[in-house]
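Review form for a predicted model. The reviewer records the input and the model, then writes brief findings.
Reviewer: anonymous (R2)
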Amino acid sequence: MDSHPKLCAAISDRIANSPDQRITFAIYMDMALYSPDYGYYSTQAVNIGKQGDFFTSVHLGPDFGELLAEQFVQMWEILGQPAAFSLVEMGAGQGHLALDILNYLKLRYPNFFAALNYIIVEKSPILRQEQQQRLQGFTVEIKSSLDEILSNSIIGCFFSNELVDALPVHQFILEQGQLQEIYVTLQPESIVNSQELFTSPSPHTLFKEVIAEPSTPRLAEYFDLVGIKLIENVYPEGYRSEINLAALDWLGVVADRLQRGYVLTIDYGYPASRYYNPRRSQGTLQCYWHHQRHNNPYINIGRQDITAHVDFTALERWGERCGLAKIGWTQQELFLMALGLGDRMVSLSHTNQPISDLLRRRDALRQLLDPFGLGGFGVLAQSKGLKETETFLILKGFTVPDLPILN
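Model under review:
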């Protein structure tokens, strides 16, 4: 599949109308993913699930959502069981996770369900339509932006599953010991608004990278935030990676909207010391198309997902500046085990399901625990406005889990 011709034209126009005929990679990635008319997440091109471009923990069955629900119930209890508790899911995809959570809470925790106000924040109009259709049996508020939520208005929990990795990133490179930024421009032979060019079989020839001074001092300041001394001899010439300033902006807005409660972020990523290891010299940027992973963001433009791993140190430290206290950071396998996934695995041997269904569910649970896959995801919990007595109460997901014997 080739690139979206109108999206390529829009990006080309943006470049041509820029003062230096170039745009940051963050702008390019934002347009490729979120352009209102043609971006990957704004059109029917987005294809999530086992048969799509990628799948998440949600697509392995309801267990992931049900175990998250157990954590949300405890959060409600720690906060003193307020009469109104908001769950704000940011980047809810097709609405599967919300459906699993709501079904489980309605059945198992009716008192909490009665207090629950479920809010989805979803930028993609196509995905908002899917969410409305899938969740029509429940009362759910669906908003297009965090801007639609009033400051200091939420008592409850903001949470996301594989959202931050899809926020647009800046790319940088080290040249002669100096921090430089990677920009996107047009190839010399490109003809803006040429339909023949945009439908050519070689769309990767449309754009090329150029290197220049950073577009903002925030790029250098980022490394002060995460405690990485990038300009050192240990980093090789040509070392390149990503900086996610959008994640900091996003977390700042979340902290502003939260009056009292929690922020729970689940995603693939590392602490800064591992993210910016000198041996990881080409960064973490990846593209996904039909479950094929590659690192060329200049093909299949508007037809493929583009992601970068999450720097959890940045979220933790920026969160502290925004008034969010770190509760804990762990891996998804340990988080879900502490919430009862091990008990679910053990109970499989006592069910009367057909053997094919049993094996399918066992495989799904194992995938949630796989330390080299979904189980290796990071889980960061932060809080704001908790009373002193509430800060001593440990969230279930961050206790030491009992590990079952897996046959």
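Findings: The two ends are 42 Å apart (CA to CA).
Further findings: Residues 106 and 113 are 6 Å apart (CA to CA).
Recommendation: see findings above.
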